[in-house]
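Reagents: none. Just compute today. TetR/AcrR family transcriptional regulator.
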Amino acid sequence: MSADPGTVRPGGRTARVRAAVLRAAGDVLVEEGFDRLDLADVARRAEVGKTTVYRRWGSVTGLVADLLADMAETSSPREETGAVLTDLLANAGLVQRTLADVRQGALFRAVIAAAACDARTAQALRRFYEVRVAEWAPCVEQGVTRGELPVGTDAGAVVRAVSAPLYYEWLTAGVVPDNPAAERAARAAHAAAVAGVYVRTP
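Predicted 3D structure written out:
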């Protein structure tokens, strides 16, 4: 059974080709948006043969899905500080820096816009966030083990609660989150978790 386009993780020259193509695809998304993403143009920018790009990724959505997979793989790993609050503050800081970054912020905005009208991109975006939430969930789970949070706390819900207000303002009001906004989001999620708001009900 063959893998979906762009999902095989290559090495050597193939890895260099993948990196160049994904970089070029990100450039197009940042500069021109999803509607202008074209495999032939990406191949030209990456200085790779069109046949290689079409054979490996097959479609624009296949390329975007692989770009998101790469972003999930290369995102900064979670920080473990030994306390839930400071772990959540670290998570909020990472989200803030990502959205405030000129390239990363524009790239996420383009992909989120594309996901609103393209099912495969939406699926790839959901997968990206599943990976990132799973990366940080152990911080909350360890907090439960240490007795900082109630037993039964939904770790994924707490992690999502940290980034939700930052994304909301960024997407709906065009406000790039700053450090105080990130701290407020983390402290609010932590306070709610301590109060048992995110305890799973049977």
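The two ends are 39 Å apart (CA to CA).
Action item: order primers for follow-up constructs.
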